[in-house]
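pinned: reference chain
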Amino acid sequence: MTVFNNIEILNNESLAKYTSIGIGGNADYFIKIRSKPDLYAAIEWAEKNSLPITVIGRGSKLLISDKGIRGVVLQLLGMDSMVIEDRFVYAEAGASLIRLANLTVSQGLRGLEWAIGIPASVGGAVTMNAGAYDGSISDCIIEVEVFNGTGFERLSNEQCQFDYRQSVFMQRPELIITSAKMGLVPDSRERLQEKVNLYKQKRAASQPMGRTCGSTFKKIGDVSPGEVLDKAGLKGYTIGGAMVSPAHANFIINKGNATCQDVLMLIEYMQETIFEKIGKMPELEIRVLGEF
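pinned: its structure tokens
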């Protein structure tokens, strides 16, 4: 371990434990960021040593190479403050989306109740424009604060270029999200809690437990990849330690010893199956990072 300007820099840190699917090789260097000064120091150290930077959140939609990630990996979960002022919400990038959704519902604010049960950070949710049950985080984003390499700037909702499971941050990973401002709508706590309870029931009934990256593929128009794969009989199909979930065919489960290569081979087989059935190739909803 190295210490630079009060930040701890871990060497050859396994990344598997930082992803929900439990897969991934080592990062050359790994730094947990707790504040903006930490972020400045980490970037200064990386630049001083000519090392590339990769930022991760809670790893809920992340598949990391078996060879790991070269350079420096930053995790901003220590930047997790959440503040509500009237109908506006200010949340740092590392804040838990589930905690934020619960907080806003308890305050009688509508707009994030769909996020109950999504194990993402705010930064990760903004990057991928997370959503469920006809809601998405882009619906309530007013502006996003980012570090652009030299300083901080604020991007409007329009500048974020949100689309279905997409944003400018996926094309420009050099923009490091530090916080987001959201505008919500006052509503009845009881009505919001009823929605939350309904979403929890739906999620428990349809989505698998265990080590997974969540939905593997985006919807193809109105077509559900999971339904196509289910009808094709792929539930339970296994390659190495990776298995198509018996509960939902758009989820891949790490049975305990899966490698990234196992998952990628299974993804390819699932894509080919969908293409054979409907003539369209599905896009990945998960992010794949690292050295290949």
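why pinned: The first helix runs from residue 36 to 48. The domain at 82-190 is CATH 3.30.465.10 (Uridine Diphospho-n-acetylenolpyruvylglucosamine Reductase; domain 3).
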